[in-house]
């Protein structure tokens, strides 16, 4: 593993990752024909992943991948393959991931909207539009992390830290963070990270060798949260034989391939799976996560009450819409976890 394994993608590629700073909590201004799930004035969270509630996949607990409106990178409204936006000259403007939230008003298909309690602060609810929900869901829904288990997380950006938070909520007793920035360990402790492996300073050993030695045979759950094919392979090698799971949350550049020895696949008995939006079904799982945020748990040794699901700790910056370029700078420089953009402040 090298420094480049954890390096940020270029600015061009980062535009596909802008959920890190999107203001994704909205109030319904009006509804179209046939829409009965929400009414004017409702508070909603838009999500890039649809949940039509009608197809076989949406009705099954086994999948969150809608077959009626399958996810794809497209400039259109998914149901109609058209755009709802035009500029002052009447020329078409295109949608972004079915949400298009870098605008004061947007048009979103009902399959991409989840109604929430309006009492929840919007600068916290928006975190579950993507990012934090993806990481927490990957541990909770995709992996099914069990109490007492050992977890290894490759990449301690906001997604990896959200995985740690999800693993903590599931009762994992050992959460190993892997990154090339040692400062991430202190940040990770807030979210349950118990051990740290510096991917740039493991001597002659690979990270997988270090983790296998630390855990006496490998972590039960490994999460790749960077988007590097080489790290998928390293995470898989760090996973315990027999019942270990490797969950992939990141995506590498187009054309990248993951190579695994076929002998190893057969004889190790490990599982490798992708996790889009953390395996969450937006309309049913986001309300559950929001309830876990509003629920408080006691920390008796400190005499305080904490949120069961930590969201406050992810928000490191809040800016006005006019400062959107500052938000991108913070993201590219790696100086924020989540930056909330306010449209009206």
From TrEMBL:
UniProt xrefs under InterPro entries: ADH-like_C (IPR013149), ADH-like_N (IPR013154), GroES-like_sf (IPR011032), NAD(P)-bd_dom_sf (IPR036291)
Keyword terms: Metal-binding, Zinc
Residues annotated as domain Alcohol dehydrogenase-like C-terminal: 159-291
Chain ranges of the Alcohol dehydrogenase-like N-terminal domain: 27-116
Cofactor: Zn(2+)
GO molecular function, one term: zinc ion binding
Gene Ontology CC entries for this record: cytosol
Domain of life: Eukaryota
Alphabetical GO biological process terms: formaldehyde catabolic process
Matching PANTHER family: ALCOHOL DEHYDROGENASE, ALCOHOL DEHYDROGENASE-LIKE 7
Subunit-structure text: Homodimer.
Protein's name according to its UniProt entry: Alcohol dehydrogenase superfamily, zinc-type
Lineage: Eukaryota, Viridiplantae, Streptophyta, Embryophyta, Tracheophyta
